[in-house]
Amino acid sequence: MRHFGKKACGWICLLAVLALFLPEGAKVHAQTPYLTWTQGPNGWMVYTQDAYEPGMVLNVGLRSPEDLFVYEDKLYVADTGNARILVLEGREIVQEITAEEMTSPSGLSVTDEYIYAVDRNSQKILIFRHDGSLYKQLGKPTEKVFGENTTFAPVKIAVDKRGNLYVVSEGSTSGVMQLSIDGSFLGYFGSNRTNTSLMMILQRTFFTQEQLDKLFKNMPSSVTNIAVDELGLMYTVTQGQNAAEQGQSVRKLSIAGADLISPHVYSGGFVDVAVDKNMNIYAIDSTGTIYEYDSYGNVIFAFGYVDSEMQRIGLVSSAAAMDVSREGVLYVLDKSKGIIQEYEPTDFAVKVHRGLSDYMDGKYAEAEENWREINRANTAFLFSYEALAKASFKRQDYTQAMEYYKVAGNVSGYSQAYWYARNEWIESNLAPVLLILLGLFVVWKVIRVINSRKHFLDPVEKQWKRLGKSSFVQQLKLLKLMLKNPFDAYYSIHHEEKVSVFTATLLYIWLIVLQITNLYITSYLFNQTDIAYVNFGSLVGSILLPLLLFVVCNFLVSTISGGEGKLKHVYCGTIYALSPYLVLMLPLQIISNILTENERFFYEFGFGAIICWCGILLYLMVQEVHVYSVSETIKNICITVITMLLFLLAAFTLYLLGQQLWQFVVSIYKEVALRV
């Protein structure tokens, strides 16, 4: 026991000495009760370091609070259940605002002059001075343009620097109401869109008005909450899966009401939105998950999790509102617990925010080292590559910028950097390349002159002619004939039997090779497929199975409809119908590497021409091989497509039956094994 006491004293002394070397003000945090994600390569969400750590928990006797607002160093809270507005500074209540007209405040906004609150029960907007006295109350607008029967049920409010009021009315599908300081109705703003499906168009075309009245109305989703930034731009959140599918969960609106961002990661349960001094956007859903976006709508961080009655610090059970201070501290209002949870940014988040601020200000080179530190800390942090690409581009290191843009998935930036890199290469290498080509031309001319006198290349020419007369090469030459005169080519396939199954099979293999070269050779500008995630078995199957299914189905249909072609003819004719693709696709893939985004037309036109050409040759194959008329050919192709669909349906049905049979066999085996 005495020995144990000496050991304990030793450890305590060691820890005390180590504590002396801790930097002043250092904080020791326990592990956060949630994970943090960020947007990684290919747009996938990946784990990252903690961006925010739970801070203070403010418990000041709130009951069913519904909104909060950070203004300067104070925190304003709509304590709905207690019919009051609390003003907090630190952990202390410094002011309590009440009024007879305020029975259930649900929304808040604060400016230099006034405190704005909306009351759900009285359906009024209450404007207080900062000393707590009631300055004015606004009710339902009286303008005729607003409408006598229009419901006015304000639940949230935001105010811009000009004093205009933006009010969210519960259930309103027209958008956000815009009011002047005296309550005059100025119009609606930022309404959500609706999607019109083909079924809706057909219903509107053929249904009577009585039938249309019985259908569900295609109404836009109503806005849930709102915020206004320092520049006067409006941000809205809308709940519901429909809004999420249409990309309207969180919106940043211009003065004209146009969407300025289109986030690819969002939630259908957003309840509030906030904007910090750097124009970063924060949105929180009802489960307590917080999404942070940059000003362009790219996900920076996502963290949080619903508290399933574990009462852990940092988790909320029913998020109602959130806001952010100028120091970057997040405040989340938990309605069911009646508390305010604080989240403090970590050193990693501070570096990211500093980098984003410099990026917004165009200080790419100055922020490069900061972004390199972020990239070293987390190589999967996508935006670091975007920032490093900008820095590389600014110092004219275009090759490096291209690499960073490629990882960041920025096709436009990659194209711009490539344009400058291409210009540099042309300026440096154009003269040597022209000299080399000229030299090769001169050498070729000299060799021809000497050969015409000495005939030293006669053995090579004889071997070349002998090779050209071989059966295999003659079959390959049919590809050229197919491009020039498809009728003669199909005559050679059908009537003269000049193509073997072996050669056709090699061409099918070449078709597969072209799909693989498309992954490796085609420029990133025209093919952003990540090879690491390509399933080559699926790639081969997606090419061969449709073609072979077409061959089989076309032969079967033609057999019972008077077609003269054999299975071999259809098999060989189908691959030869793809001659434009087999011959021209590899050169097009190579040419793509000298084109920029602005020259995309040449690539897309070439690719489209090849596909259309193949379609025409496939039509001619059916017509010539089976000796059909035009109408018979069209009929044959249509029936072939239907037969292919029936085969696929039968295969899918057999797959489902096989799955059920296998599950049945497995269940019997387990039952027997259990009883034995």
Counted beta strands: 25
Strand order of the largest sheet: 2-1-22-21-20-19
| CATH class designation of the largest domain | Mainly Beta
- Gross morphology is elongated
Q: How many whole angstroms does the radius of gyration measure?
A: 35 Å
Q: How much strand content do the residues show?
A: 15-25%
Low-confidence residue ranges: 1-9, 11-29
Q: Looking at the chains present, what oligomeric state does this protein adopt?
A: single chain
Largest sheet, in brief, is: 6 strands, antiparallel
CATH architect. name of the largest domain: 6 Propeller
What is the CATH topology of the largest domain? Neuraminidase
Explain the overall architecture.
Mean pLDDT is 86; it is low at 1-9 and 11-29. The chain has a six-stranded antiparallel β-sheet with strand order 2-1-22-21-20-19, with no helix packed on it. Strands 3-25-24-23 form a four-stranded antiparallel β-sheet. Helix 5 (347-360) packs antiparallel against helix 6, helix 7 runs antiparallel to helix 8 (398-408) and helix 14 packs across helix 15 (567-577). The chain is elongated and about 110 Å long. It is 45% helix and 19% strand. It has three domains: 57-194 and 219-345, TolB, C-terminal domain (Neuraminidase); 362-464, Serine Threonine Protein Phosphatase 5, Tetratricopeptide repeat (Alpha Horseshoe); 470-646, no CATH class. It is built from 18 helices and 25 strands. The protein is α+β, with helices and mostly antiparallel strands and 676 residues long.
